[in-house]
């Protein structure tokens, strides 16, 4: 039985060694599975000679062959990978390095100076930053053939980790993934090899499977995010399919890659499909695709309909979290795709909806999603706090309801509820109402303090280009659609909303925004 994610690569290289593994069109570069496995072996040997088992290696990369090689090398060397957004600022990288007590940093050239500044600010002279392509990088790959095969005795593996087994084996900590929570400091979710492998197995057990051996898969989602790292790359490596690498998403070039390389599986985010939905050439450029997938945020039903109408293909939507490694549900598990639905639990994952007391909700009522399965994380770094309970269930903080067929529909994040005079207001419901206005292209709702009701609803609205939308019109539009306590009392017209790298609206930044000049107020 496979106990280390990197063993999937070894198996695939043995079975499909001469097949294409990774293609980086921008660099004119290709690797077969045998070449990829050999590159991972070389780097893993150097890392093993340098660090003790269980040491943590921060990976500050964009989408590249080097990132994927370094990731699997870290796992093969029985170390812990810490994927880091290569667009992070020095303070952001410093927080991750400090919290994780990273032992080494591997970084792409464009992020290396920022990573060095972060390491220097910590005052840890032993924390080295090795830049891709440097002499130190080449030395790592050569260490395995220069007699340095034993781990360095002086390397510090860091604090004892509770909740994830040390050393080798399926329960060993494999990835420390920092979650982009809606509030507070990011926390490191501890993901064992067992959790990552279980999620890959669940994904591949779907029918149709998102990745099959003959597939050509677009890799444009950021690989430092777990959706792409284990939800897409993991199944790709397990099946021996081919990955087409794009450093970042750009609508027209991404479609050109799909057409040129005859891509069959397109994992994406709502922002990708929204950017493509109105293109006249969409059916032609997606002619090779057999499967379109969306995740990381809710896919607007209007975008789903536009893509379906333009191409004849549906978009399968999934739901998951970093802590579920990441897959939890998918419309691939449903009898049919329903607009707005996140589908049903993927194979191997149990799911239930509970009320505030932890009891199952009545049929059709919304409740907090709890999940149980081998794919769950081992708690938050470093003490295992916040992980699954003694019975294996873990509360996601998300609220959903199930329809008569058992298909799930997200209502909202429990932590984002707006409590108006004791009544729960789900921001998603208000946002959906706002989006029915023909001149509203995007909307986000947050809670703001109110002197009499405790909290009130504040809406940020992006108008259709060229429209003369007013706050009064937005408020009037909500009157017949929402109960009085649910209606926005403050509306801010903005040219755009802030988004995270994976397309989610960054509501934390909206909460910090000062109201602009165009504000409409209504007494709650």
Provide an overview of this structure.
- This protein has 524 residues and is α/β, with parallel strands linked by helices.
- It has three domains: 6-158, 3-Layer(aba) Sandwich (Rossmann fold), CATH 3.40.50; 197-414, 3-Layer(aba) Sandwich (Rossmann fold); 417-521, 2-Layer Sandwich (GMP Synthetase, Chain A, domain 3), CATH 3.30.300.
- The chain has 16 helices and 25 strands.
In a nutshell, what does this entry contain?
With 524 residues, the protein is α/β, with parallel strands linked by helices. Helices cover 29% and strands 25% of the residues.
Secondary structure elements and their pairing?
Layout: H1 6-16, E1 20-24, E2 29-32, H2 33-50, E3 56-61, H3 65-76, E4 80-85, H4 90-100, E5 104-107, H5 109-122, E6 128-131, H6 135-143, E7 173-178, E8 188-192, H7 193-204, E9 216-219, H8 226-229, H9 233-239, E10 242-245, H10 251-260, E11 265-268, H11 270-276, H12 282-285, E12 291-294, H13 301-311, E13 315-320, E14 327-330, E15 341-345, E16 350-354, E17 367-372, E18 394-402, E19 408-413, E20 418-420, E21 423-425, H14 427-434, E22 440-450, E23 454-463, H15 471-478, E24 490-493, H16 507-512, E25 519-521
Helix pairs in contact: 1-2, 2-3, 2-6, 4-5
Assign the CATH architecture of the largest domain: 3-Layer(aba) Sandwich
Low-confidence stretches: 151-155, 514-524
- Terminal-residue CA separation: 60 Å
Summed up, the domain count is 3
Order of strands, main sheet, comes to 11-12-13-14-15-19-18-17-16
Number of strands: 25
Quote the average pLDDT.
90
**CATH third-level topology of the largest domain:** Rossmann fold
How does the helix and strand content classify structurally?
alpha/beta
Helix content: 25-40%
- Main beta-sheet annotation: 9 strands, mixed
The CATH first-level class of the largest domain comes to Alpha Beta
Give the overall silhouette.
globular
CATH superfamily of the largest domain: ANL, N-terminal domain
Oligomer: single chain
Structure annotation, total helices: 16
Beta-strand proportion: 25-35%
Global Rg: 23 Å
């Amino acid at each position: 039985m496979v106990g280390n994610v990197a063993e999937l690569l070894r198996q695939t290289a043995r079975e499909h060694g001469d097949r294409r593994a990774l293609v980086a069109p921008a660099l004119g570069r290709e690797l077969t599975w045998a070449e990829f496995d050999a590159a991972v072996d070389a780097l893993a040997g150097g890392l093993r000679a340098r660090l003790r088992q269980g040491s943590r290696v921060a990976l500050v990369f964009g989408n590249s062959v080097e990132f994927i090689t370094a990731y699997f090398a870290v796992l093969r060397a029985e170390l812990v990978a810490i994927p880091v957004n290569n667009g992070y600022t020095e303070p952001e990288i410093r927080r991750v390095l400090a919290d994780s007590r990273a032992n080494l940093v591997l970084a792409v050239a464009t992020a290396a100076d920022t990573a060095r500044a972060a390491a220097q600010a910590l005052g840890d002279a032993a924390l080295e930053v090795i830049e891709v392509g440097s002499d130190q990088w080449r030395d790592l790959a050569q260490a395995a053939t220069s007699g340095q095969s034993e781990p360095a005795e002086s390397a510090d593996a860091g604090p004892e980790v509770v909740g994830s087994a040390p050393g080798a084996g399926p329960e060993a900590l494999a990835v420390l993934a920092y979650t982009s929570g809606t509030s507070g400091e990011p926390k490191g979710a501890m993901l064992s090899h067992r959790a990552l492998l279980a999620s890959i197995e669940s994904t591949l057990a779907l029918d149709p499977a998102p990745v099959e051996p003959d597939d050509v898969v677009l890799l444009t989602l950021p690989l430092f995010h777990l959706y792409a790292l284990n939800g897409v790359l993991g199944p790709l490596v397990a099946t021996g399919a081919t990955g087409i690498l794009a450093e970042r998403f750009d609508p027209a070039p991404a479609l050109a890659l799909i057409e040129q390389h005859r891509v069959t599986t397109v994992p994406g985010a709502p922002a990708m499909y929204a950017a493509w939905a109105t293109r006249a050439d969409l059916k032609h450029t997606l002619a090779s695709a057999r499967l379109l997938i969306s995740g990381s945020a809710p896919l607007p039903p209007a975008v789903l309909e536009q893509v379906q109408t333009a191409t004849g293909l549906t978009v399968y939507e999934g739901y998951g979290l970093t802590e579920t490694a990441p897959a939890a549900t998918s419309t691939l598990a449903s009898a049919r795709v329903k607009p707005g639905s996140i589908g049903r639990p993927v194979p191997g994952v149990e799911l239930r909806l509970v009320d505030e007391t932890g009891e199952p909700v009545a049929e059709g009522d919304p409740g907090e999603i709890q999940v149980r399965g081998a794919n769950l994380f081992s708690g938050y770094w470093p003490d295992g706090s916040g992980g699954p309970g003694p019975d294996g269930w873990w509360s996601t903080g998300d609220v959903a309801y199930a329809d008569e067929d058992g298909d799930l529909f997200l209502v909202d994040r429990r932590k984002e509820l707006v409590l108006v005079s004791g009544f729960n207001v789900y921001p998603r419901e208000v946002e959906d109402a706002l989006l029915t206005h023909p001149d509203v292209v995007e909307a986000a709702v947050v809670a703001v303090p109110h002197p009499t009701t405790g909290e009130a609803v504040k809406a940020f609205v992006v108008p259709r280009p060229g429209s003369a939308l007013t706050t009064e019109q937005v408020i009037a539009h909500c009157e017949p659609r929402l109960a009085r306590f649910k209606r926005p009392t403050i509306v801010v017209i903005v040219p755009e909303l802030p988004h995270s790298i994976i397309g989610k609206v960054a509501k934390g930044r909206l909460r910090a925004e000062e109201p602009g000049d165009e504000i409409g107020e209504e007494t709650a």
